[in-house]
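STRUCTURE REQUEST FORM
Protein name: Phage major capsid protein
Source organism: Methylobacterium soli
Requested output: structure tokens
Priority: standard
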Amino acid sequence: MTLHSPIETKSALAALENKAGTGREAPGEAKAALAELATAFEAFKETNDTRMAALEGRLSGDVLTEEKLARIDAALDTARTRLDRLSLDRARPPLGGPEPRRDGIGAEHKAAFDLYVRAGESAGLKRLEAKALSAGSGPDGGYLVPPTIEREVLRRLSLLSPIRAIAGQRTISGGQYKRAVSTGAPQAGWVAETAPRPQTDGPVLSELKFPAMELYAMPAATQTLLDDAVVDIDAWLADEVETAFSEQEGVAFVSGDGVSRPKGFLTYDTVANAAWVPGKIGFVATGAAGAFPAQNPADVLYDLVYALRAGYRQNAGFVMNRRLQSTIRKFKDQDGNYLWQPPLAADRAAMLLGFPVTEAEAMPDAAAGSLSLAFGDFRRGYLVVDRTGLRVLRDPYSAKPYVLFYTTKRVGGGVQDHEAIKLLKLA
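Status: completed
Returned output:
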């Protein structure tokens, strides 16, 4: 292994941290950010190899090496965050044009909503809702936004909300979504050509319910901003609510208790995977309280992967937070290859054991008995339910001189296939 001089190492690390933390974008920056991420990971591997070599040689840990490794690890996280932001900005086209409807209602709705947001004039929206025979709207409940804004908000949430991005999704028009699931396989057997066919027991069905809960945000704007005709009201409203909605969803889909919010997959009953039964989520224990095993820590990751049936593994992925991912970055296989690999493209995920990694900050940190790592096919395992209709109520009185926009949407969620998700328990 070739070691750099202290001066070279310090200057290279400083350059890496400066690149990762500037936040100043330039043309072709996504490609540059991807290159910086790859460079950071190479520096991380080299420094960690140096640290491991010192420990294997029974030398005491070098404080400078540990500090350098921590700084590179932080720069690696920053570079990855910057790459994600650039990918999101690139995938965020401006909202343009009215809703393409042959009867012209889309254009009329957009114009009436724009007038309501800017000046508080609701006559146009009332007339449209009367045409549509809609109920439950009006000044007390707010008005429906044009479909273009609703679709754009949902699309942006799919990019920003980590669990929504990998989960299954359904759109409903009622208060909840119901589906029947089989809790046991139907009985079957082999028989000869002329042998009698005894009657078999049918499958046992159970009903799952996913109620849509109310999620709200309240962006504010000055009347001067609203009076500016150059300001795209559609894009402004989508920008303001996307972050608030995605942060609340990110927590609820992981650890929500199901009371006035979706139920997160970590709040369901769990059981050791060897004793798994329908209705519970199986877990694999690491064998060490709040940590990975001291010897061959990566073995438990393989155990977790193969705890999942083959039919689910082909579309599976890992879910963890940034701090646990920092720990797993140091793991190697028996040939000395790092198990964690940076993304190959700007819009791709980092890989672990050949499976994509989703970074969800709502996942718990490593602690005794914590369920800090999930693996599974979340498209089949977790369902996000969106009720159609995004409503906005204009309030120019509560926070003068600002105009508040009480924006609500209804969303639910829960586990729909308990066998599709497995958890790693640090216990």
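Reviewer notes: Residues 1-17, 19-27, 94-103, 135-140 have pLDDT under 50 and may be disordered. The radius of gyration is 26 Å.
Form closed.
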